[in-house]
Write a structure and sequence with these properties.
With 391 residues, the protein is of the alpha/beta class. It has 13 helices and 19 strands. The chain is globular. The structure holds zinc ion. The site of zinc ion has 6 residues, from loops.
């Protein structure tokens, strides 16, 4: 049976909003036809009409489903290093509880209109949850290894874990510049040059990361000491972490830089000169949770950089809701139009994950899912705006 949906505006994202537009969808969720107000007058079937705007399903490009059991366990605003230490100390828990929390988190994401997720993992526990979910998952096995001598071993283990996620989409990716040595970056680069391997990395989530790269100083020194890690081999790079790792990233391969809270304009220019296929992902609620600071989001809006949005995990976010992330961006950067952030939260994420043939915009033949956003006035969200999954 074909269903018809309409609202004050239909926002396809790939094109201009359509006032009182109607979209028809078949049983498998495939978009059959899009009508403007005039052509909709020919529809004789009942139309489900809503107040608000209809947008495509959200694409969340950064999450850690396997940390869901750490919801509301850690205090806010303690900084990244304290957060990492807490995660390391508390991530181990009863497997059943971990899985239960993941199932719940997956359900929350579905309810909040999320249809696709880029999800970082350290273990295979999330596989069953992902197989059963209606959400499309791309799993990033995050590789962590700062000791050059162990690079090969870490890489091989990561590749094995990636294999365990088959038939789901998966790749191996560096965790962060402070947790991956050059040798491990090299393993990842060589592999990505041979195989299809989508990349992501946590970037400049804390100023400590820049301090460590520039001067080999700051809180990371004590962090490594606590972990009994000998970093004698490491030489200060006299520039920010991002500028130091960019040459280690393979050419022509898509990479998602996540957070970018302490990325400077100089870093952005540097990245652009290097000509890598850079995508920027913002997780504003997690940044406020951990560092109480936001990236200079509007600084990245040039040169057609692909910008996406992520929720990060429930360990550093009260909820897994893309609309809430958009609301935080809107509140802090009121000059960024809603239609722009909606594109970041849908089509741009789908493009990065390579699933824009099916997801990310309301277009004939796609199966993007449909969300209703309420309390929108002149394409501006209010504090009362909510997302309701229509399909
Ligand atoms: Zn993360």
């Amino acid at each position: 049976m074909i269903k018809f949906f309409s609202a004050d505006y239909l926002v396809p994202v790939s094109g201009e909003p359509i006032k009182e537009g109607v979209v028809s969808v078949n049983e498998s969720g495939e978009i059959i036809k899009i009508y403007d107000r005039e052509s909709a007058s020919t529809i004789i079937e009942p139309i489900e009409k809503h107040k608000g705007i209809i947008v495509p399903g959200f694409v969340n490009t950064h999450c850690h489903l396997e940390l869901s059991h750490l919801h509301q366990k850690f205090p806010k605003n303690k900084g990244l290093i304290s957060f990492i230490k807490s995660v390391m100390a508390e991530r181990k828990a009863d497997e059943k509880k971990v899985v239960e929390a993941m199932v719940k988190a997956d359900k929350i994401m579905v309810e909040n209109g999320i249809v696709a997720v880029g999800d970082n993992v350290n273990n295979a526990l999330s596989k069953e949850v992902k197989l059963k979910s209606s959400i499309y998952y791309h799993t990033f096995v995050e590789l962590i290894g700062f000791e050059p001598g162990k690079a090969k071993e870490v890489f091989d283990k990561g590749l094995e874990l990636k294999g365990q996620f088959a038939p789901l989409a998966a790749s191996v990716a560096p965790h962060a510049s402070y947790s991956v040595c050059k040798e491990l970056f090299k393993e990842i680069r060589e592999y990505s040059n041979k195989e299809k391997n989508l990349l992501t990395i946590h970037n400049q989530e804390s100023e400590e990361e820049n301090k460590f790269y520039r001067y080999k100083s700051g809180e990371f020194i004590d962090f490594y000491k606590d972990m009994n890690l000998d970093i004698e081999f490491y030489k200060p790079q006299a520039r920010d972490s991002l500028q130091s790792i960019i040459p280690l990233i393979p050419k022509g391969k898509k990479i998602l830089l996540v957070h970018n809270t302490y990325t400077s304009l100089k870093d952005v220019y540097f990245v652009r000169r290097f000509g890598r296929d850079i995508n920027w992902c913002f997780c504003p609620n997690a940044n406020l949770y951990i560092e109480n600071r936001l990236p200079k989001v509007d600084m990245f809006m040039f040169d057609d950089f692909n910008i996406t949005i992520g929720t990060d995990s429930l360990a550093s976010n009260d909820k897994l809701c893309m609309l809430s992330e958009i609301q935080t961006i809107t509140k802090n950067f009121p000059s960024i139009p809603l239609l722009t952030t909606l594109k970041w939260a849908t089509l741009n994420g789908a493009k990065f994950l390579g699933i824009d043939r099916d997801f990310g915009s309301i277009e004939e033949g796609k199966t993007p899912g449909l969300n209703l956003i309420t309390d929108v006035k002149d394409f501006t969200l209010s504090a009362e705006s909510k997302v309701k999954k229509l399909l």
